[in-house]
């Protein structure tokens, strides 16, 4: 399926298949029960989308001024009589108060927009509960994942998807059409049993971010402890020097790039492992283990956290000269130099190291920013598949290589200096190099023509142990064809 196909709403329009323009509202009257935040935003949006809106309130006189002039605000029973589709914009706890309207509600479509305050709060979903109270109505669960703010500010500024479920296909189609006219993308979530899942969605706190955040925190904790031992505890134990002042900025600032760099390599490591698995088994149709699947799915979040840590590292680094401790040490060095009557402390090698170190660091941060920006859905949607994969895969790998140069210029020859092995612990940067260098070496090996060719064939459907007629693009970009067999 192409990216274009995937962007299309799941619900079709029957006769309007292929027609991009939204279907005309046909002057449909839509009812809204409730006069709260959601009801008001919904009414504004429905009116601006060309619908006639009738709002049902327990106190229409008091609430009328809160709604657009085009919307009619009346008593609940009156509103229900005038519309076939009724949005129930009140809380679940108050559904039973609508039972007086049961007679006038017969045969109507009720749209349940409600959310809960806790995940799986009730045994049955709110929509199922509403359906049980009004068996003569058709209940559709929809619009609960859209906030009142999104409704009012327009679909451009918020989540565009409206998840819909119902046991009645016709009613579901009607609500999908209304959602589409309002500028949203309806997503068919199946029958009413999905309502519980849909109601839990707005309550989940960053579900896709849990693992990456724990990973980042875990790495931060490990590197922070390691740096603390080297930079604070070691001088205290060995020389009785109090370096606690280094904790808030220096130790944090040496930890952040370690986390960022390792996280960046962890974005590309699962791809390497997946390629190894495909090469080993000679097929792309074998399922990856669950942990690898999960890891592959979290690459975007891991990459964004890597960028976040790199950005913090840049800000911390810029602030280093502002510290009192830095100024005191600078003055102390100047005084020492004067006492020793030294005219210059210029070390050419150090000057070059620093210039290169900062320059590659800035380039790496620039590339990481580009990767982060293009991973945002609004930007990613404007790129074709080739552009997206070039930025995320090729430029991402270049960012990893440049970050490695940044780390190497930082470390320079320190790995060979025995004074750097505090408590026999190697400098932190040597540890951070392990995973990224493994990824870089693996990627270089995969780019060798013999391996690249085999991997490409596997990814185009070739399988070890199967005899298939095969067409492959050659290394020069032309297509070569031939008979291949598993034993090749
Ligand atoms: P709200 O501001 O508190 O409004 C609730 C409305 O319910 C009241 O204005 C009231 O209107 C009506 N109501 C009817 N019977 C009631 C009774 N017995 N007691 C109290 N009120 C009664 O709440 P809201 O934020 O608009 O939310 C309404 C529904 O939309 C909820 O189910 C919520 O989960 C859902 N929702 C809200 C948002 C959001 O961003 N706010 C987003 C998604 C879903 P009258 O006094 O005019 O009858």
TrEMBL record:
How is this protein annotated for GO cellular component?
A: endosome membrane; plasma membrane
Where's the Pyrroline-5-carboxylate reductase catalytic N-terminal domain? Answer: 29-116
Q: What is its main location?
A: membrane
User: Region Disordered: what ranges?
Assistant: 1-27
| Membrane-spanning residues | 211-229, 261-281, 302-323, 356-376, 388-409, 429-451
Query: What does the sequence similarity comment in the record state about its family?
Result: Belongs to the STEAP family.
Protein name, entry field: Metalloreductase STEAP3
- What organism is the protein native to? Lonchura striata
């Amino acid at each position: 399926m192409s990216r274009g196909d995937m962007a299309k709403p799941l619900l079709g329009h029957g006769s309007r298949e292929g027609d991009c323009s939204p279907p005309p509202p046909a002057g449909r009257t839509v009812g809204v029960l409730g006069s709260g935040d959601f009801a008001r935003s919904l009414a504004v949006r429905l009116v601006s989308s060309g619908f006639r809106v009738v709002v049902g309130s327990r106190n229409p006189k008091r609430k009328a001024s809160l709604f657009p002039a085009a919307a009619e605000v009346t008593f609940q029973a009156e509103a229900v009589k005038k519309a076939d589709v009724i949005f129930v914009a009140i809380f679940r706890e108050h559904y039973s108060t609508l039972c007086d309207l049961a007679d006038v509600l017969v045969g109507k479509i009720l749209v349940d927009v409600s959310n809960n305050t806790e995940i799986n709060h009730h045994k049955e979903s709110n929509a199922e509960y509403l359906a049980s109270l009004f068996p003569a109505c058709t209940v559709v669960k929809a619009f609960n994942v859209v906030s009142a703010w999104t409704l009012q500010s327009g679909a451009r500024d918020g989540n565009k998807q409206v998840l819909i479920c119902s046991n009645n296909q016709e009613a579901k189609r009607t609500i999908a059409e209304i959602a589409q006219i309002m500028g949203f993308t309806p997503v068919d979530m199946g029958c009413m049993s999905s309502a519980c899942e849909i109601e839990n969605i707005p309550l989940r706190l960053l579900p896709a971010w849990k693992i990456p955040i724990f990973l980042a925190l875990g790495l931060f904790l490990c590197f922070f402890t390691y740096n603390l031992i080297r930079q604070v505890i070691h001088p205290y134990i060995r020389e009785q020097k109090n370096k606690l002042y280094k904790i808030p900025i220096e130790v944090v600032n040496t930890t952040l790039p370690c986390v960022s760099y390792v996280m960046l390599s962890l974005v590309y490591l699962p791809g390497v492992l997946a390629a190894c698995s495909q090469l080993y088994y000679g097929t792309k149709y074998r399922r990856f283990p669950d942990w690898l699947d999960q890891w592959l799915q979290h690459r975007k979040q891991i990459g964004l956290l890597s960028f976040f840590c790199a950005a913090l590292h840049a800000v911390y680094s810029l602030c280093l000269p502002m510290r009192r401790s830095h100024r005191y040490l600078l003055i102390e060095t100047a005084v020492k130099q004067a006492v020793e009557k030294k005219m210059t402390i210029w070390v050419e090698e150090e000057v070059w190291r620093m210039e290169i170190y900062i320059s590659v660091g800035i380039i790496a941060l620039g590339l990481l920013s580009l990767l982060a920006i293009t991973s945002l859905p609004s930007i990613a949607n404007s790129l074709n598949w080739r552009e997206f994969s070039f930025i995320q895969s090729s430029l991402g790998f270049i960012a990893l290589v440049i970050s490695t140069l940044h780390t190497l210029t930082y470390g320079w020859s320190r790995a060979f200096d025995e004074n750097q092995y505090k408590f026999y612990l190697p400098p932190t940067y040597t540890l951070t190099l392990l995973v990224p260098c493994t990824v870089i070496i693996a990627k270089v090996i995969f780019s060798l023509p013999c391996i690249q060719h085999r991997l490409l064939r596997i990814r185009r459907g070739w399988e070890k142990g199967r005899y298939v007629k095969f067409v492959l693009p050659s290394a020069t970009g032309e297509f070569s064809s031939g008979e291949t067999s598993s034993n090749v």
